[in-house]
TrEMBL record:
It comes from Thlaspi arvense. This is Pseudouridine-5'-phosphate glycosidase. Homotrimer. It is found in: Membrane. Belongs to the cytochrome P450 family. Signal peptide: none annotated. The chain holds residues 1 to 357 of 885 of the full protein.
Length: 357
């Protein structure tokens, strides 16, 4: 009985879909999402648009610092001639471009908003919940409306010990099937960078380091891994996006432009990185594994970087906050990195909008 009623429901749905023209089907899809007037106008007129994820806002730092950073990142995008499109799900509605009230709501809800990767979209929409989109979910919505450039701090990757845990971020598979260029500072060195690069190759993602021969390691300029390719300017990037990912070739695969940490932030970056490496080595020596590993690493890096000299160097780096813990240290550099990526990503989006194909 149950199976016959569910199969008739299925056939009703498929007959409904079969009776829609492509235009009607597209309109139906578009009616499920909300695009801000500004982003909609920019897309229609071929202006530069930069997609921004929202997990970094909800989970990356506390309120109100997250709101301030999100606004600053949007300002950087505007100051460089592009329109920002922050993407999140609010009360079950995927929103492309948030107004001030929506950004405030998302930021103040903080971690109570569900971290939403691609797999979680359906559930968040179905339950009319609030969802902060990770790179994989943001890619999905950005590509639905034809945005070609997306800026973030760092993408997810292949975790260390992935050969045992299978923990590989869906950011990588989403990039493999979505024709969008992501600008990030690489992946955190707490991940396995060589394996992440291998996996991106498997997914047919074009990976280039920006003005560098080496793939960056988030907090440091160098990871010890040669970048598969190198680009030297926003125009270089725009040409690759245009030739490689646009409709001309109809090639549905993504691009990762990895931008090294700016020189003025690399001192703080090096301190965080060396503490992380030492904590990782200690975890191995003490055989700390599984679910105990992350809390151990966080606590140890916190201790290792908690001295006053580091606090001073970090505080002079970014004039803020009073507590010294990993989240804070992480956040300071994250902010510096996402801002730098926003600057370069906007230049790439503008160069792309000016390119004659
Ligand atoms: N890496 C960072 N900062 C972040 C993230 C990754 O340095 O905020 C977030 C991004 O939203 C990314 C997600 O898409 O975490 C990846 O999560 P997971 O490893 O669970 O796939
Ligand atoms: Mn994971």
């Amino acid at each position: 009985m149950a199976s016959s009623s569910s199969s008739s429901a299925l056939s009703r749905i498929s007959s409904l879909q079969n009776h829609l023209s492509p235009l009607e089907a597209n309109n139906k899809l578009m009616s499920l999402i909300k695009i801000s007037p500004e982003v909609s106008e920019a897309i229609s007129n071929g202006r530069a648009v930069v997609a921004l994820e929202s997990t970094i806002i909800s989970h990356g730092m506390p309120y109100p610092q997250n709101l301030q950073t999100a606004k600053e990142v949007e300002s950087i995008v505007r100051d460089n001639g592009a329109i920002p499109a922050t993407i999140a799900i609010l009360n079950g509605v995927p929103c492309i471009g948030l107004n001030e009230e929506e950004l405030e709501r998302l930021a103040s809800l903080g971690k109570s908003v569900q971290k939403t990767a691609g797999r979680d979209i359906a559930h968040v929409v179905a339950t009319r919940a609030n969802g902060a989109t990770t790179v994989s979910a943001t890619l999905f919505f950005a590509s639905m409306v034809g945005i070609q450039v997306f800026v973030t701090g760092g993408i997810g990757g292949v975790h260390r010990h992935a050969n045992h845990t299978m923990d590989i971020s869906s950011d990588l598979t989403a990039l493999g099937r979505t024709p969008i260029a992501v600008i990030s500072a690489g992946v955190k060195s707490i991940l396995d960078i060589p394996k992440t690069l291998e996996y991106l190759e498997t997914q047919e993602v074009y990976v280039a380091a920006y003005k560098s021969d080496e793939f960056p390691a988030f907090f440091t300029e160098k990871s010890g891994c040669k970048a598969p390719s190198r680009v030297n300017s926003p125009e270089d990037c725009a040409r690759v996006i245009g030739k490689y990912a646009n409709m001309k070739l109809n090639r549905p695969a993504g691009i990762l432009f990895a931008v090294p940490i700016p020189k003025q932030h690399s001192a703080a970056g090096n301190l965080i990185e060396s503490a992380t490496q030492r904590a990782l080595a200690e975890a191995r020596e003490q055989n700390v594994t599984g679910s105990a590993e992350t809390p151990f690493l966080l606590a140890r890096v916190n201790e290792l970087t908690g001295g006053t000299s580091l606090a001073a160097s970090i505080l002079s780096l970014e004039h803020c906050l009073s507590i010294v813990n990993l989240e804070f240290l992480d956040t300071v550099s994250d902010i510096a990195l996402v801002k730098n990526n926003a600057l370069i990503g906007s230049q790439i989006a503008v160069a792309l909008s000016q390119l004659i194909f």
